[in-house]
Amino acid sequence: xxxxxxxxxxxxxxxxxxxxxxxxxxxxxxxxxxxxxxxxxxxxxxxxxxxxxxxxxxxxxxxxxxxxxxxxxxxxxxxxxxxxxxxxxxxxxxxxxxxxxxxxxxxxxxxxxxxxxxxxxxxxxx
Length: 126
Prior knowledge:
It is a single chain. This protein is of the alpha+beta class and 126 residues long. It has one domain (21-109): CATH 2.40.50.100. Strands 1-2-3-9-8-5 form a 6-stranded antiparallel β-sheet. A 3-stranded antiparallel β-sheet has the order 4-6-7, with no helix packed on it. 18% of the residues lie in helices and 35% in strands.
């Protein structure tokens, strides 16, 4: 299981990579492993301002459906459209091609509330 050092992690198992005032968000390798084979991803919040902890979309796996939560507040500016035809990109490359949304971060101070890689490892007991 991979946990990358250059990301921040939320307790709901989302990660965020910060590039200036933009955040790239996905679910962790741990989360995709727990969900199993992902068959569908839906995000209908593009162009919406969402608060930290609000639902940005859903992931459907063979066994379950799970919400995707905003790790920080911001405007959803892009959905990874490659996931429409290939939702299993999340299973194959959770931290790369399997990213889910990009946001314009509205409150950078919220990033301080997230875990670093070491904190996330401790949180999941890795």
